[in-house]
Amino acid sequence: MRVSGRDGQDVLRRVGEASVLILISLADGPKHGYALIQDIKELAEVELGPGTLYGALDRLERLDLIESLPADDRRHPYRITAPGAAALRVHLDSLERVSAAGRLRLRLGGI
Amino acid sequence: MNDPRAARLVERALRCYPARWRRRHGDEAAELAALLIRDGASAGSIALSYLTGAAREWLTPRPGGRLAAAACALLVAVCSLGISAVLLAPPAPARAAITSTRGAAAGASHGRGHARCGPGSSDPVPGLIRAMGQLPRSVWEIEHVRAC
Prior knowledge:
The structure holds two protein chains of two kinds.
Chain A: H1 17-26, H2 33-44, H3 50-62, E1 66-68, E2 78-80, H4 82-109
Antiparallel strand pairs in A: 1-2
Helix pairs in contact in A: 1-2
Chain B: H1 4-14, H2 19-38, H3 43-59, H4 66-88, H5 92-104, H6 110-115, H7 127-131, H8 137-147
Helix pairs in contact in B: 1-2, 1-3
């Protein structure tokens, strides 16, 4: 399945939080499973279970948003692809808009 | 993994994944579990995470699995038709009982009357049970005691 975020569609809306966190973690360079778990723990204070991690990695790879690099010993590093980076950008923009609207409404509501 | 029990637990959980997944990620997943356990994660929670992942892996439809899905759908359709046909058609014992009781209905002795009782042959047996033939024999026997 080929999905592209270039047409402005937020394709990450339905992939789940774990997948988005993985893409964010891979945005600054390739990582393997253990490094991803550690990075996401630091970045978002979310502890990804290994089963969740591999499920999300497979899903992102099927969507061509990440790609697996040649194995380093037994570990497969993963790298974000160009469509993956575009999709992440669209998703983060969308989150920013929602976040700004939420803050504005809280201010207007005086809460 | 230093603790053999933890290693066994994780290994069992990993065995629940499909073979193609194990070929691709199996070694790395075992090593990742060992590193996480070394960092203080419990083997149980890691095994549980892998078990959940395995269930999801089995349930996620694959692009290459379309033919298998079509075959399964066809099989289910054939089975449904078969069950419907069985439910609609009267079973053999019921047909036999109907033909034998027509001839021997009047003046039958108690023993002979008893003999013609059977699954699907007497009124207390509901239509659905009659259609299913041999299966609800115990239900029929209860009804039989009440009726005969």
